Amino acid sequence: MFAYYLDLALRSLKRNKVLTALMVLAIAVGIGASMTTLTVMHLLSGDPLPGRSDKLFYAQVDDNPLPEKQTEPMDVMTYQSAMDLWSAHQADRQTIIVDSPVKLRAPDTTLPPLMPSMLSTTADFFAMFDVPFRYGGPWRAEDDAARSRVAIISSDLNDKLFGGANSVGRTLRLRETDVRIVGVLAPWRPSPRFYNIAGGRFSGGKTADYYGRPQDVFTPFSSALEINDGNFYQYSCWQLPPSPGHLQNAPCVWLAVWVQLDSPAKVASFRRFLDGYAAQQQALGRIARPQNTRLRNLVEWLDYQGVVPSDVRLQAWLAFGFLAICLFNTIGLLLAKFLRRGGEIGVRRALGASRGAIFQQCLVEAGMIGLLGGLGGLLLTLLGLSLVRRQPVAFADMVHLDARMFALTFALAIATSLLAGLLPALRASRVAPGLQLKTL
Amino acid sequence: MEIQPILAALRKHRLATLLIALEIALACAVLCNACFLIANRMDAMRVNSGVEEASLATLQISGFDEKQASDVNARMLAGLRTIPGVQSASVLNSIPFGEHRGRVGITTDPEGKQFGGVIELYLGGPGSAEAMGLKLVAGRALQADDYQPFTGVFPSSAPVLMARELAEHLWPGADPLGKVIWVDKWSYRVVGIVDHLATPAPDWAGRSAPGWSAFVPAQPGPSLAGSYLIKAPPADLDRVLRDARALVAKVAPDTVLDQEGSQTIGDLRAQFFQQDRIMAFMLVGVIVALLLVTALGIVGLASFWVQQRRKQIGIRRAIGATRGDILRYFQTENFLIVSGGIGLGMVMAFGLNLALMKFYELPHLPLHYLPIGAAALWTLGQIAVLGPALRAAAVPPVVATRSG
């Protein structure tokens, strides 16, 4: 029966090619616009570490010593708070993160010096965030304590400096210090670059840069303080740092602390630890608001920072508004198409087709339009995504249509067309056989 | 033209009429708001920096130590001044639409109680204020002995030039000359007011405003190095910048040139607003597609109605209606439907604007967008219906005598 309906639908679509083309085009354009923006949204609002993100938490203590009115603690911490929380080892894993620009030379090569961004962290970073290695591996906890002169480099930098060869054991000069490469990362492109995001609340929605590439050089935090002393940037200060770029003893916040907590009980106990630490620091007179601590998990932290650029959201809303207009358009055109065939439907009803059968026939036709529109929409989505890829935004290179979005394109197209066909099909199925036959 | 029979006919096609009207309403809401968004972005992009952008470029270098800073500055400035066409070369820490290195919270009292906002302190060496082309509107210009050497991040005290917008914010109605702003223990006395000087990132959403900045004079040194302002005639600027970039490898070979940061101010501005420009283009695209789809919908449905009513049209023609009567009938019908849609659309446009205001910090939709949107949709409707209406007008009276 379904095959017969398909045949009927095909014949009907062929009968008025212009009207069919208009409907297919409307659906295709609506789907193309919606799917392009939806794919970008999907990419930007996804969970960067699925399966692990609920175990990773971003700790915040309100380091502000002044009793100002402020509802949220600063996005990052002072050296003292970060070191205290890290060295207490109260979580399953914990790490400190800060990035700084560093002058880099590879003594074995003739390349001019570079100025890449260096991420300074602790050994747990790589295990906590599932960082993939191509050669070598992370440094050990002892290296953190010993301030070892070691580094891990990104695959991009390894390609640039060493032509992609195994560079473990080779030397880099960071500013004036020689460091030994102990690991080379495999290509790693988390979306967003979740581990060092701060200040998103004040960016006015212009957050595309949070989707940039990870840093090119990773060094132990303790070593970096010596290697790159004077080149660290504060997030904010209550008083000006006595010596610029040297922030260990300055009243400045500049360090992020992440912890891994594997069970709800551990989360609860770490919260108690955090509050206890803040209360103790207040007693020492270092901070003013001990109750102002936060422990957000990874996804909550990204939401709080508002990482999805507001323009991308706006584009998605616009696209769906546009799809709604295309939907109304298709409803109108389908209505015209079905009712024009009132005579034919009357004959079929008179010959015994039930209302349900007419309804189904009409919906099959609508679904067919949806399928064709979906095909067109897929082409337009691919075109739209290639346009996005050519935009000068940090996430451009990550934009692609994955299998789920591919399937969703057709699902959305057919759902839209069926939704559009519902009302016209209902009207068509209510055509009275007698009346239509009389006018034939 | 009698409206009564048209309304009676529309009442028989309630559903189709409603659909077209709804489509028009949605189109009206999106159209008005999209136009408003475009206008907003264009406004943002036209922000006045207060400096002579067309003749300014910046060169950014890094990778040298504090001890080398004075030497690097001296070699770079001397080198830059040898480039033919360079009118001035100076050191300036923050660059409009480029690096912001002087974003600080200030107070208007030494105790740090009266918070004044987050402003930009442009820290510049001799010649930079003149090169920027700041227009002094009150007080005095800076003199050679205002530029003093300093240690630390900023000079501990200095006479400053303040942008008028900031002065009016800090001391509304009062004379700002001689007043002092404080950054922690450091104090800056206002000696001159300049017409306008924008912060490097005028769209930053913190406790700031686009025109909250001040110029602090200082001698280049360890904390004021590697960021240069070059002035040249606009026609020579691109070549001068090319020469300047090449110069770095010669006079300061051990430093690293920041390729992305070393641009003309015009290019920095273009980059700064690139996202807004893309968004504006995209909105234009949406508007065009939207109007096209709406027009196609009207064409489709009007064609259907014309075909459905061929017999009635024939009868009307047979009993004396002219082609013009038929044409006007369909035009009036379209006008009525579109008007209904616009009426609803204006309400929806307002609602959409409220939603945008909530999520995107947009101002109210100015009322004049509504009549403009309405006029656009009326015109669109009339153009779309013209084809089907002409076909209707061409139906010969003899159709009335045929059956079927």
Describe it for me?
The complex is a heterodimer of chains A (440) and B (404). Chain A has 440 residues and is an alpha+beta fold. Chain A has two domains: 177 residues, no CATH class; 253 residues, no CATH class. Helix content of chain A is 49%, strand content 13%. Chain A is built from 14 helices and 13 strands. In chain A, strands 1, 2, 3, 4, 5, 6, 7, 8, 9, 12 and 13 form an eleven-stranded mixed beta sheet that branches. In chain A, helix 2 runs antiparallel to helix 10 and helix 12 runs antiparallel to helix 13. With 404 residues, chain B is of the alpha+beta class. Chain B has two domains: 169 residues, no CATH class; 191 residues, no CATH class. Chain B has eleven helices and eleven strands. In chain B, strands 3, 4, 5, 6, 7, 8 and 9 form a seven-stranded mixed beta sheet that branches. In chain B, strands 2-10-1-11 form a four-stranded antiparallel beta sheet. The longest helix of chain B is centred in the last third of the chain and has 38 residues. Chain B is elongated. The two termini of chain B are 29 Å apart.
